[in-house]
Design a protein that fits this description.
With 293 residues, the protein is an all-alpha fold. It has ten helices and no strands. It has a domain at 108-292. Helix 6 packs antiparallel against helix 8, helix 6 (154-192) packs antiparallel against helix 10 and helix 8 packs antiparallel against helix 9 (237-256).
Length: 293
């Protein structure tokens, strides 16, 4: 029996992944992607796709667009999932033309890093969920928060679970950790780099962010992430603060492993624990009235 060596793919080092590393393909200055302009475009695209899908869903169902989320939660959540999917499809087509590289490479998805650490990521997410759940004892919780009121039927609960465990984490991680975080870090580095020949040379030839830039970007990008959930939980600011802490952890994982896929796995697992607890507490989503107590 011959001794055959097996070669495994090498995980790329995230030093200057946005800059051409092959001199033959070097086109000059380092291209910082995504920057703030790309980020504004992406968020605008997501918003537009959500509006189109929501209006389309309400038109097909012959429902007035003025109705609230709680009036037609299943229809609204399905349209939201469709809007996220449409936005990602359009982005995967549009941004490569601007970046001259694939969409996943541009946002530093790095699935290989996630594949190698998936067990650690899941365990860490479970621990994070335990800490967050324990912290709820020390903050004020809103009664009859909008997020609870949408659970009017079993099928709506399953739709919400799919959206919350699959579509939501992927979209939010791409938006906040794939676009906003690096864009803010780039903006910080641009504002603070030394206006000297050496500083200019580094700016033009490297896309690596400085540690202060990553720290500031993490703190800033976590704010809209947490505030985005404020309305859903009835503006319970203590819970918003906990979500801010969760965002800091997700941002650290994304930066530490240079992988949005890693933070997405942690985010999905974290959300899964929430819906799993609801599933158990309501007897398989059969007694949703428990959530209203």
């Amino acid at each position: 029996m011959s001794d055959l060596s097996i070669s495994y793919p090498i995980e790329p080092e995230a030093l200057d992944i946005q800059h051409d590393t092959d001199p033959a393909d070097d086109h000059g200055r380092a291209r910082r992607i995504p920057h703030l302009g790309h980020t504004v475009l992406f968020f605008s695209l997501v918003f537009a796709c959500l509006i189109v899908c929501l209006l389309g869903a309400f038109a097909i169902a012959h429902v007035s667009p003025g109705k609230t989320l709680t009036a037609y939660p299943g229809l609204t959540l399905t349209a939201q999932g469709a809007g996220y999917s449409l936005a990602l499809i359009v982005s995967a087509w549009l941004f490569p033309y601007m970046w001259k590289r694939s969409f996943l490479a541009g946002i530093e998805w790095n699935a290989l890093a996630a594949a190698r650490r998936w067990g650690w990521l899941i365990l860490s997410a479970l621990l994070l969920s335990l800490v967050a759940e324990s912290s709820l004892r020390f903050v004020h919780l809103s009664k009859n928060a909008p997020i609870e009121e949408i659970f009017q039927s079993r099928h709506v609960a399953y739709i919400a679970a799919i959206l919350g465990v699959v579509f939501g984490p992927v979209m939010e991680e791409i938006a906040f950790r794939g676009f906003l975080l690096p864009a803010l870090a780039t903006a910080y580095d641009w504002a603070t780099f030394p206006r000297t020949p050496a500083g200019l040379d580094r700016w033009q030839n490297s896309t690596a962010h400085t540690t202060p830039a990553l720290v500031v970007a993490t703190l800033l990008s976590s704010t809209p992430f947490a505030l985005m959930h404020a309305a859903q939980i009835g503006y319970a600011w203590g819970v918003v603060g906990i979500l801010y802490g969760v965002s800091l952890v997700l941002s650290y994982v994304r930066i530490r492993f240079h992988s949005v896929a890693c933070s997405a796995i942690m985010h999905a697992t974290y959300n899964f624990t929430i819906f799993a607890a609801m599933f158990v507490a309501t007897g398989g989503f059969r007694h949703l009235d428990i959530l209203q107590k």
